[in-house]
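REQUEST ID: PR-0412
SUBMITTED BY: lab tech R.K.
PRIORITY: routine
TASK: structure prediction, single protein chain
INPUT:
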Amino acid sequence: MLSTEELIDLLFLVSGGLLTTTLVFAVLWVRSRERALKARLARQDSDALGEDVTHLVQAVDAIAIEVERISEAQRFTALTLAERSNAAGGARRLGERVITPH
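STATUS: complete
OUTPUT:
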């Protein structure tokens, strides 16, 4: 049989080992949770960034379409005015005054 002192020493040894392993596992668990949270935040940031970029690309595409429509309207207006001017006045002579409608 073990003496009381030997039992106390064994109890301290076992308790110390259990405390050490518990602390090691706790530290490892906290670090793994921290890495998991960082990975989740990075993924959310990249998703949010991807959504922002997609929104920006869609906005630029919409602007490009509107600019194209404006340029088509300007071309049409210029062509219509040129045809109207040729049909109404014909070829003007040099020095002839032009009365503007404003």
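NOTES: The mean pLDDT is 85.
REVIEWED BY: pending
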